[in-house]
Design brief:
Keywords: Cytoplasm, Histidine metabolism, Hydrolase, Iron, Metal-binding, Zinc. One of its GO terms (cellular component) is cytoplasm. One of its GO terms (biological process) is L-histidine catabolic process to glutamate and formamide. It comes from Lysobacter spongiicola DSM 21749. It is a single chain. This protein has 416 residues and is an alpha/beta fold. The protein contains 15 helices and 18 strands. It folds into two domains: 106 residues, Urease, subunit C, domain 1; 289 residues, Metal-dependent hydrolases (TIM Barrel). Strand 17 and strand 18 form a beta hairpin. It starts with 14 loop residues before the first strand and ends with a strand. The structure holds N-(iminomethyl)-L-glutamic acid and fe (iii) ion (FE).
Length: 416
């Protein structure tokens, strides 16, 4: 381990903090958990300054750091939720009941429910109220270990309401002190005022993007490429607009049918293709060649009672990294825990707990284009979680419960 430490006797040069007494799942290896038993990890200026075995520390912890934290259990990198729609108003519990009685997601969407019912709810509330309703979901994700959140627009579907959603997403990051990456998803559904005029709506989507980007509200661009969403030609126009601004793209791809969405992501050198239940072998090969991440969303798979599995073996065989996310949204995935997403991925997709943890950390960071987090390594952000577990595989095992003992983002502690 590189020594990046302070001189023990220069107190102003000490590390900000050090945690000892826990094992570390660094994930800093091509396979395995990168485990270090009886480890120690120090941070300074929001970044990891030292990682290794406690007995290899260059001095006594209290001489090396201003704060010494006694941990136990295991420490992992902070979890990264790389696909959420957690900014919304209201809920769709009634629609859930209708689906239990036999209505399909598509039936409900075509009848003006689904995404559009959340659009009505979002348009009705002001920015502060939207924040008030959304913040508890972000807090729940943080409390269960997520220190980076991606948040999409897509329930506004007009300039002012898309802007309102993206502003709320940014305010969540400021209020919680975690990284929020915003994604522009105006091409999520066709708003009623554009019924029958999807291409004209895409003209607007393309026109709003540079204005929102100018305000610093957009980190990436997404679309819903689906029979009940937008077709590949329309998606391509949205992607072209992103490319013109140098913004990375990602896509709701091949969730309910194969429209070649994941292949389109690969063609544009995009960050990720998400859902991907119906992705073809050709698209998997294209993703492997382009370096796109497959973002698996087991919450939506579970709630929609899907039966078509993503092409997991093909992803493995071609070395396409698989990330996990909650897809936290009121319709298809009212899921507010990354750990629960990991459990669902292990159960439904037979991911190993190790794949699930990598999917929730390293690969999820890659799906957001972030290379400063996802593993415990000197120089990475000091985003980490201390868990009350005996082995990291428990993170993919327990359903519910409270396992996160402490959550640190940028070296700041969030749970007491
Ligand atoms: O990721 N598929 C489209 N978007 C969301 C669902 C949004 C909603 O139903 O409100 C998804 O599943
Ligand atoms: Fe989604």
């Amino acid at each position: 381990t590189a020594y990046n430490g302070p001189m023990a006797n220069e107190s102003n040069n000490k590390w900000d903090g050090i945690i000892v007494g826990a094992s570390l799942a660094t994930l800093d290896a091509d396979s395995g958990y990168g485990g270090i038993e009886d480890g120690a990890m120090a941070w300074r200026g929001g970044c990891i300054a030292w990682v290794g075995r406690r007995r290899d520390l260059p001095g006594a912890p209290e001489e090396l750091a201003r704060e010494v934290v006694e941990g136990d259990g295991w420490i992992t990198p902070g979890l990264v939720d790389c696909h959420t729609h957690l900014v919304f108003a209201g809920d769709r519990a009634r629609e859930f009941e209708m689906r239990l009685q036999g209505a399909s997601y598509e039936d409900i969407a075509r009848a003006g429910g689904g995404i559009l019912s959340t659009v009505r709810a979002v348009r009705e509330v002001d920015e502060d109220e939207l924040l008030r309703q959304s913040l508890p979901r972000a807090l729940a994700l943080l409390a269960d270990g997520a220190t980076t959140l991606e948040i999409k627009s897509g329930y506004g579907l007009d300039f002012d309401n898309e802007r309102k959603m993206l502003r709320v997403a940014c305010r969540i990051g400021e209020q919680l002190g975690v990284t929020v990456r915003t994604t522009y998803l105006a091409a999520h559904a066709l708003p009623p005022e554009f019924a029958g005029r999807a291409d004209a709506y895409i003209d607007e989507v393309v026109a709003w993007l540079p204005r929102l980007h100018d305000e610093g509200l957009v980190d990436a661009v997404d679309a819903f490429c689906e029979g009940i969403g937008f077709d590949p030609a329309q998606t391509r126009r949205v992607f072209d607009a992103a490319r013109a601004l140098g913004l990375p793209v990602k896509l709701h791809a091949d969730q309910l049918s194969d429209l070649g969405g994941a292949g389109l992501v690969a063609e544009f050198g995009g960050l990720s293709a998400d859902h991907v239940e119906h992705t073809s072998a050709d698209s998997v090969r294209a993703m492997a060649a382009s370096g796109a991440v497959a973002v698996l969303l087991p919450g939506a798979f579970h709630v929609l009672r899907e039966t078509t599995l993503p092409p997991l073996d093909a992803f493995r065989e071609h070395g396409v990294p698989m990330a996990l996310a909650t897809d936290c949204n009121p319709g298809t995935s009212p899921l507010q825990s990354m750990r629960q997403a990991m459990q669902l991925a292990c159960t439904h997709f037979r991911l190993t707990p190790e794949e699930a943890l990598r999917g929730a950390t390293v690969h999820a960071a890659k799906a957001l284009g972030l290379d400063d987090r996802g593993v415990l390594r000197v120089g990475q952000r000091a985003d980490f979680v201390q868990w009350a577990i005996r082995h990291p595989s428990e993170l993919g095992y327990w359903l519910g419960g409270r396992l996160a003992r402490a959550v640190y983002a940028g070296g700041q502690r969030h749970l007491r």
